[in-house]
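The protein record passed on below.

***
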Amino acid sequence: MHVKGIHHLSAITADAPLNLDFYTQTLGMRLVKKTINQDDTSVYHLFYGDEKGNPGTELTFFEIKNAGLRHTGVSSISATSLRVKDDAALQYWQEKLTELGIDHEGIKERAGRKTIYFQDPEGQRLILVSDENNDGVPGGTPWEKSPVPQEKGVRGLGPIRLTVRHPERTAKVLTDLLGFEKVGSYSAEVNGQPDVEVYACGEGGSGAEVHLETRNDLPPERLGRGGVHHVAFRVDDEEELRKWIDRVSEAGFPNSGFVDRFYFRSLYFREPNGILFELATDGPGFDTDEDLEHLGESLALPPFFEDQREEIEAGLTPLPSPTQGK
């Protein structure tokens, strides 16, 4: 039993059409699944990823139309990294963001890698990270039909930053329960705060890292649009997931038990600082109910919701085809 890396990350949008346009047309990711939040069928769940939506490449969004702005604070997933192939690709993005009028900090080193921090139109905190010198979990393959050149495209999720008030509690869960190892640290970006600690699992590298930031000057974050709901980590299959359910339960963490998401199987629990963690299987995958050539082109519903399709579709905002350019 071991966690293999980051599986996906799920965030909040209040505007699905705006979100779709930004992540497919501006960032060039592929919409690999247009489905619903299985816990609230009136809400879209949009999955963006590489050409197939491979585990480790999926950035997902719940559309909550009346969601207020997030209020920044601790007990939060405070930055999501997106991997690009190399420093040349990062330079491309610096020029592209500038050309599009998107505020960014320029190229800056974090944890030994070149990065660019910026935000999406709703304030989602994003960091592009170069894989120039990266070893470990391989990146995905950007979609060849993307409006962004394939060599410059997003290859998947990079390090996920957690911001907490009591880092030792989260660190204990990462290391003692999930099998992460502390592999380094780097200077905090806020004066007077401790170094950011770097934890890695599986093969390591940017696709398997959590960056643990301590902030003792902030209140708890209030989740809203521009915020992140949870982070999921990869496990092999259902057999292993059921062992993890036993392990998490034996460690005393209240949890969801086994949850069938159809495209993967899951377990949810909160670590002691209140951040929601998910363990998710690598399969079955997004081509379970759609041909790979046509992922994300129509509303996909797991079989256990198919008898509600007419009602569900009536309550959702129609979205443009993700294959259409601007």
